[in-house]
From TrEMBL:
Organism: Desulfovibrio legallii
NCBIfam families noted in UniProt: PRK00033.1-5
Name of this protein: ATP-dependent Clp protease adapter protein ClpS
GO terms for MF: peptidase activity
Keyword tags: Hydrolase, Protease
One annotated GO biological process: protein catabolic process
Subunit structure as annotated in this protein's UniProt entry: Binds to the N-terminal domain of the chaperone ClpA.
Chain coiled-coil ranges: none
Boundaries of every Adaptor protein ClpS core domain copy: 22-101
Length: 106
């Protein structure tokens, strides 16, 4: 049976397939400002973990510094969780309290 045959015989078959291939939820990863983490370290995190250019990393770091929070990127849940864990472990290993969170994009 071809896809066209399935579409003709049962309109619900096509709907079920379309529902199965729904885009995965997306999550934004955020860095939060603190009084201890150096700007250079934040730029390094943005370059090494989020693969930002030096210019992008500096712009995000300044946004975090001035506004208290800045977005590093938008990813699937698993990728976002991994990035958050990497930031936290890298910061702790360097002795910084850098806060990194994720939130679902609505």
């Amino acid at each position: 049976m071809s896809w066209n045959d399935a579409d003709r015989s049962d309109g619900q078959s096509r709907l079920a397939v379309e529902q199965e291939i729904k885009e995965p939820d997306r999550y934004r990863v955020l860095l939060h400002n603190d009084d201890y983490t150096s700007m250079d370290f934040v730029v390094s995190v943005l370059r090494n973990i989020f693969h930002k250019t030096p210019e992008e990393a500096t712009a995000i770091m300044l946004l975090v510094h001035r506004q208290g929070v800045g977005q590093c990127g938008v990813y699937t849940r698993e990728v976002a969780e991994t990035k958050v864990r990497r930031v936290r472990s890298t910061a702790r290993a360097a002795g910084y309290p850098l806060k990194c969170t994720m939130e679902k994009v609505h």
